[in-house]
Design a protein that fits this description.
By secondary structure, the protein is α/β, with parallel strands linked by helices. It contains 11 helices and 15 strands. Helices cover 30% and strands 25% of the residues. Helix 11 links the parallel strand 14 (309-314) and strand 15 (333-337). Bound molecules: NADP nicotinamide-adenine-dinucleotide phosphate.
Length: 338
């Protein structure tokens, strides 16, 4: 098998392919011959040494794959063998062979290529948890999706559109026309001017019902401010840390110092709610995740889950895939193919 290792913390050159014998599945596990792998922002943070959940280097990251099952361990229904499947992997996904517990494996929708299937698990589960499970978004409510052009952003647009919400999104201006075609009602260029002023203008000063914010630090403070009464803020990432000019773990400092502290009294008095989402800390809730995944896969059949792959890179050029995202070139998902 070939795996892409993070050999040390730093730039994309720290990603290197290594070969080893194919592993065999253990009890309750299957082996997948991987066709496509989803690249996530967390993989970049892990490479930069900014992701506290990542294994120690050298390590193989990667949270999701799509491919064909070619072996099953003891206790697993052998009818899985030969089936196309999409799976959540707790790291180890950057490989052409992976071993995963069968509880994390789902039949790939026949209508989707492996590339598009690999774009579903992390992005859509995260967006589902943010908008539906914890954000409680309703028809005709307004949601503000930050980083609307990213993988989670496009998934959130699909789900908000399905719910019948009014959808605002921030993204680089080059992505606006595509995002509007996907269902965004109002596109805001957060890199020019103050986006909070634009949100106030668009809502006639009322604010929005839900904001989902993966930027972190001081940005969460601003997102909280644009909530209307009964509004909810979902915090789920710290992309801002990657732009810090400091080195090593110090890069987290400006983000950490800028973070708001939410005291209960103002929350009560302003009728506002804040919550956090970390999909990587839900592995103990496999049945819950599987239930959400079944709804999302049904959404593929009903055509409201529309995974969009911007670009596919070969597994051996994973560093180029990271650079592409870090240069903010992607609209939607970037995948690796074997
Ligand atoms: N908590 C969770 O469970 C969870 C799960 C999935 C993702 N996340 C988080 O959600 C965020 C988005 O993830 P994703 O995989 O959807 O991302 P993605 O598709 O890789 O998004 C990349 C886009 O993010 C925007 N961006 C904003 N700040 C950036 C920065 N400092 N450096 C580079 N790009 C930046 C850029 O779009 P513009 O051109 O519009 O600026 C860029 O094209 C990340 O923070 C990630 O860690 C969290």
């Amino acid at each position: 098998m070939r795996q892409v290792f993070i050999t040390g913390h730093g730039g994309p050159d720290k990603l290197q392919v290594r070969e080893s014998p194919d592993p065999a599945p253990g009890q309750g596990e299957v082996r997948i011959r991987v066709a496509a792998i989803g690249v996530n922002f967390a993989d970049i943070l892990a490479r930069q040494g900014l992701y506290q959940d990542a294994p120690k280097v050298p390590c193989v990251v990667g949270y999701e794959v799509s491919g064909v099952i070619d072996a099953a361990g003891s206790g697993v229904d052998t009818s899985w063998i030969g089936k196309d499947a999409v799976a959540l992997t707790r790291f180890g996904g950057y490989a052409d062979v992976v071993i995963v517990p069968v509880a994390q494996v789902f039949a790939k929708p026949v209508s989707l290529s492996h590339e598009r299937a690999a774009a579903i698990p992390v992005n859509y589960l995260t967006a589902w948890q943010l908008l539906v499970i914890m954000g409680s978004l309703k028809a005709n409510e307004t949601v503000l999706i930050h980083n609307a052009g990213g993988g989670v952003g496009l998934a959130a647009i699909d789900i908000a559109r399905h719910l019948g919400a009014r959808i605002f999104g921030t993204a680089s201006s080059s992505k606006h026309s595509f995002l509007k075609q996907r269902g965004l009602h109002e596109a805001i260029d957060y890199r020019v001017g103050d986006w909070t002023v634009e949100v106030a203008r668009l809502t006639e000063g009322k604010g929005v019902a839900l904001v989902i914010d993966p930027i972190g630090g001081n940005h969460w403070r601003k997102s909280f401010k644009v909530l209307r009464s009964t509004g909810r803020l979902g915090m789920f990432g710290i992309s801002a840390a990657t732009t810090s000019k400091l080195i090593g773990p110090l890069r987290m400092l400006p983000v950490a110092l800028g973070m708001p502290l939410f005291h209960p009294i103002p929350l009560v008095n302003h009728n506002k709610c804040v919550f956090g989402v970390n999909l990587g800390h839900l592995w103990h809730e496999r049945e819950m995740l599987a239930g959400w995944m079944q709804i999302l896969l049904q959404g593929v059949a009903e055509d409201w889950v529309r995974p969009h792959v911007d670009k596919a890179f070969s597994l051996t050029t994973a560093g180029d895939a990271h650079t592409y995202i870090e240069e903010r070139k992607n609209i939607g998902k970037v995948v690796l193919v074997t």
